[in-house]
Amino acid sequence: LYILGQSNNCYSETMLVYLVACLIVISSSCNAQVNLTPSVLSVDEGYSAEFSCTGTGPKLLQINSNLIDPTGGRVTASADDSSGDDGDTINYIFVNTTRDDNGTTIQCFANAVGSNIITLSVEFPPRYEPDTANFAVMDGSRPRIYLNIDAAPRISAYTWEKDGERITSNGRVSLTVNSISFNSVSRSDSGEYTVIATDSKGTGSATITLDVYYAPEFVEGSGIVNRSVVAGEDITLACGVVANPEIDEDDGLALSYEVEDNSNIEMGETAFEITSAMSGNMGLYTCTAVNDVAITELIYNLIVGVVPNVDFNLTITITSDVIIIDSVFSDNTPVNPVVRFYITINGDTYTVSTSGFPLNINITEFTAGQSYTVTVTAENIIGNTTVATQSFNIPFTPSPSPSPTPDDGGGANVAHLSSLLFFVLMIPLIIMII
Questions:
Q1: Distances in Å between the alpha carbon of 350 and those of 74, 144, 230, 364, 376?
Q2: Do 70 and 92 touch, CB atoms closer than 8 A?
Q3: Over the chain, what HEC string results?
Q4: CA–CA separation, 349 and 364 (whole Å)
Q5: Number of alpha carbons in the 13 Å side-chain half-sphere of residue 95
Q6: Is pLDDT at 91 greater than 50 in this prediction?
Q7: What are phi and psi of 379, to 5 degrees?
Q8: Could you give the CA distance from residue 347 to residue 322 in angstroms, rounded to a whole number?
Q9: Is 370 within 8 Å of 361 (Cβ atoms)?
Q10: CA 3 to centroid of chain Cα atoms
Q11: CB atoms < 10 A from the CB of 232, how many?
Q12: In the predicted model, is pLDDT for residue 412 greater than 80?
């Protein structure tokens, strides 16, 4: 400008006027301010948010970096606004806010000049998405289940329940506001788990249904199970089973057997029924269960025989210290010999092996003057039978032996000798006096 001002030609004067005018316009534009208020825009979910744009000239509104027409839709100019597009201030309304509107950015422009940017904050109770879910997990596994949660403001508290009962984190289960994890899940962990989260606007919840899968398990056990029956008696070999998921009704459970004679065997859907068992029924009876997890077998090894046949001579001896139960016996049982005896005395039972006689019982366990009954039962692999019964009385009260006289180290003998010596010495004196 200084150089142009020193020139005297008309062109220079024209340029000078033009530049001055440009500077005035630029200066005017730089000084123009556009304000968007309030600087913090917060509203509860479902309510409308109101804000204003102040600036000179035509105005444009930009939501999330997109220019919009505020004459319709969810963001409109206030109905009582009378300033018009060219006025200094226009009031806007953001109607029916939802949690999805949280974080929306807003900016206005007046005469091509942008305002400050404000962010819409929509506050709402916690919400889980989805609020219900089903999970199937394997027994013994370590599942970790996450939940999506949306909350504004932040969560202030949360609780967990299992089937309506309050639970907390422990060595097996870890709980957070949006997750549940198991160190080693078991079938007892199946059930409904509900989490309830709270913020200043309310509460929200979600429910998880946990289904723990496991292989079929037979009620009577697994692997090979020995069963015995007395010849001529009936027996049922059951194949009751539990499983998750449950076994199929049609082909989930299969029964089979390997025996010499099946004429008296009825094979049902869940059990073997044997009527008047005989030696030809001895063998293997197999139950096989299948579900989505595994195949499990239970095998019965059936033994048919007779209960013990024993000649048993029982003797009972009472001393001051012990009761002696003794016997001489002969086992006449064919095939399946006696394996043990049970000695029962007024409800108390003692187990004795075939080589374990005599049985000595401390007499202090009995009461003087009382009568006692001894019952002897013999047992083999087929069953048991009573082989002897006898009663006895306790005729006296047991008492401990007299305690020995404490040793006085010879003091008593010394005293005796001293007395004797005294009398011996006194005899001459007595004679002299006489």
A1: 90, 53, 25, 16, 10
A2: yes
A3: CHHHHHCCCHHHHHHHHHHHHHHHHHHHHHHCCCEEECCCEEEECCCCEEEEEECCCCEEEEECCEEECCCCCCEEECCCCCCCCCCCEEEEEECCCCHHHCCCEEEEEECCEECCCEEEEEEEEEEEECCEEEEEEECCCCCEEECEEEEECCCCEEEEEECCEEECCCCCEEEECCEEEECCCCHHHCEEEEEEEEECCEEEEEEEEEEEEEEEEECCCCEEEEEEEECCCCEEEECCEEEECCCCCCCCEEEEEEECCCCCEEECCCEEEECCCCHHHCEEEEEEEECCCCEEEEEEEEEEECCCCEEEEEEEEECCCEEEEEEEEEECCCCCCCCEEEEEECCEEEEEECCCCCEEEEHHHCCCCCEEEEEEEEECCCCEEEEEEEEEECCCCCCCCCCCCCCCCCHHHHHHHHHHHHHHHHHHHHHHHC
A4: 17
A5: 10
A6: yes
A7: -130, 140
A8: 19
A9: no
A10: 91
A11: 11
A12: no
Counting every residue written for the chain, the total comes to 434
Residue 297 has pLDDT above 70, yes or no: yes
Predicted TM-score (pTM) of the model is 0.64
Give CA angle at 67 (65, 72), nearest 5°.
130
- Gyration radius of the chain over CA positions: 51
- Predicted confidence (pLDDT) per residue in 231-270, tens digit: 999 999 999 999 999 998 788 999 999 999 999 999 999 9
Distance, CA of 163 to CA of 175 (rounded, Å): 16
Q: Are 86 and 53 within 8 A, CB to CB?
A: no
Q: Are 183 and 204 in contact (CB under 8 A)?
A: no
C-alpha to C-alpha distances, 16 to 13, 23, 27, 28, 93, nearest whole angstrom: 5, 11, 16, 18, 48
Contact between 195 and 177 (Cβ < 8 Å): yes
> Among candidates 55, 58, 120, 118, which has minimal Cα distance to 94?
120
User: By C-alpha distance, which of 179, 143, 140, 141 is closest to 160?
Assistant: 179
Contact (CB, 8 A) for 387 and 376? yes
